[in-house]
Design goal:
Blueprint: E1 17-20, E2 25-27, E3 35-40, H1 47-65, E4 68-74, H2 78-88, E5 94-96, H3 101-106, E6 109-114, E7 117-122, E8 125-129, E9 135-139, H4 147-154
Parallel strand pairs: 3-4, 4-5
Antiparallel strand pairs: 1-2, 1-5, 3-8, 6-7, 8-9
Length: 159
């Protein structure tokens, strides 16, 4: 098995164009000149992913006031993302990467330990990308609970 890709601060963020919950194309290039948090989650409407998405929802204005936009990416189809957005009142784009190409480009798919068993799947991962398209923070295997708080701390947003 090949060693998984691991991005780190200073790397160029892999470009992408994916379909959002409304069927519209969204590109990382759309956010040129802005800071973006790109996070990968295993599946819409599951307990951990819902907790994480709601954490971003509840903290979106404070992230925005610090200059960050948020994009959530999963392998779910746009129709499921729309249902997830509506059921949880999510206020940021949810992007569909059904073929996992973007997950793989970011190293957000691979082997992980799930309840003591080695499985292949989505690695809950988060990346901060600056206005020049460079990664300023790369976190793999993050915890859903308290994620935004730890992210804010890692980004130096909470003095």
């Amino acid at each position: 098995m090949t060693e998984p890709i691991r991005l780190s601060a200073g790397d160029t963020a892999p470009a992408f164009t994916l379909t959002d919950q409304d069927g519209a194309p969204v590109s990382l290039a759309d956010y040129a000149g802005k800071q973006v948090i790109v996070y990968f989650y295993p599946a819409a409407m599951t307990p951990g992913c819902t907790k994480e998405a709601c954490d971003f929802r509840d903290n979106l204005s404070s992230l925005a006031s610090s200059g960050y936009q948020v994009l959530g990416i999963s392998k779910d189809e746009p129709s499921k993302l729309k249902e997830f957005q509506e059921s949880e009142g999510l206020n940021f784009p949810l992007l569909s990467d059904a073929d996992l190409a973007v997950h793989n480009a970011y190293g957000a798919y691979g082997e992980k330990n799930l309840y003591g068993k080695l499985v292949t799947g989505v690695l809950r991962s988060t990346f901060a990308v600056d206005g020049d398209g460079r990664i300023t923070l790369a976190k793999y295997n993050v915890k859903a609970t308290g994620h935004v708080k730890s992210l804010r701390k890692a980004l130096g947003l909470d003095a």
